Amino acid sequence: MDEEKFPIVLTAALPAGGTGKTPFIKIYGEWKARQGYKVALIDLDHQCSLTELYDIYETESTSLNMFKGGNVNFIPVEENIWLLPAHPNLQYEPARLRAEGTQNIYFLLEDWLYEHENLIKSFDYLLIDTHPDTDTLTKNALAVSTAQVGVVMPTEKSTNAIPKAEQALSDLKADTYDKRHKEERVTCELLLMGTDIEKIGKHYTKLSQQLLSLISDDNRFVGYIPHKELFAQAFSDEKHSIWMQLENETIMREKSNQVFKYQLEKVMISMDKKVEELTWH
């Protein structure tokens, strides 16, 4: 496959639920789409959170068929953005694949991408959302990715998931190492992003301060997104796009919203740079 034309693949994955990986996929996808890139969002989480953000309730032609066979349908959801919806039955796939003794079990998604090369090359980015685990489907996503993006909140559960993610990625690389050619088949690297950093008055909360300290000591972090009501509204029932909100003149008169926009764009730019470094490494 002509790698120069193959899209950049990023997977949001951390073995802790509710950390903000799905919002990251949507926001970063919109960020790249607004730059003119064609972005495909692939929902591999059987909870279908990303799919439901776009009010799509599809039971045919879903990401499940990447593993079981059958048609898939990338649905246009925004300008320059397409979504491949998830299916609840994704939760049963790891057990089915193991029970059937599937060969090269971590490269099924890679095989599918090769088999659908013309379709995949029509996109510039593939952004994959996963279930918060380290199971077979998540590892399939990591096997084709330039980077694993772990979104970390100021909670003990979230920060404790970082070493678990590190170990799972390390194990995947070891399990798939090509001994014959003495090279890694999986080249994905772990990137981290803080989110929901909160201040009370002029001071950060204790847990937020602890996460900020971790961020400053770990160069895998691209930065952090502060806690902001605008951010929550972007994923409420009304689903106001965060980028559209940040273009609203009335909203942007407030100084704190200007600061939030600066911080959000700073993190997105930092992510772009990190991904570019890994892509050309």
UniProtKB/TrEMBL annotation:
Q: Which residues form the AAA domain?
A: 17-162
Gene3D superfamilies recorded for this chain?
P-loop containing nucleotide triphosphate hydrolases (3.40.50.300)
Family matches, as Pfam families: AAA_31
Q: Which InterPro entries match?
A: AAA_dom, DNA_Partitioning_ATPase, P-loop_NTPase
- This protein is called what? Chromosome partitioning protein
